[in-house]
Amino acid sequence: MAEGEWARTTVTVWRGSAEMQVRDLVGGTLEEQLQAAESWLGELADARPGGLLDDLEARLFCSWAPREGQHAMTLPSGLIRALARVNGTYWMDVYAPDD
Q1: Where along the chain do its domains lie?
Q2: Between these two residues, 3 and 84, which has the higher pLDDT value?
Q3: CA torsion through residues 12, 13, 19, 25, sign
């Protein structure tokens, strides 16, 4: 396991049963990756004519190892709203830091 905090975030969007887009957000902190995901999902939702998003579905998947000790992960309200607009779900895979 790598030392210190690391994160990898992937956003996958489907239209119906067909995979439409995948965005792999690597580098930076988890917070930076979640901010990038919020921005991209917001742009995707805004680009839909008339806000019709019933045919879209998204999954935000994060793998994360916090730095040593306790470290909270927070989903900002803007990200929660962006996920809701594209019928999104959030999955997290947490790895404990090395002892």
Answers
A1: 6-94
A2: 84
A3: negative
pTM: 0.78
The pLDDT assigned to 77 comes to 93
What pLDDT is attached to residue 51? 57
Q: What is the DSSP letter of 50?
A: G
B/e letters for 52-74, b = 16+ CB within 10 Å, e = fewer, are ebeebbbbbbbebbbeeeeeeee
Tokens representing 78 are: 């803007």
C-beta of residue 37 within 8 angstroms of C-beta of residue 22: no
CA quadruple 13, 71, 32, 42: dihedral positive or negative? positive
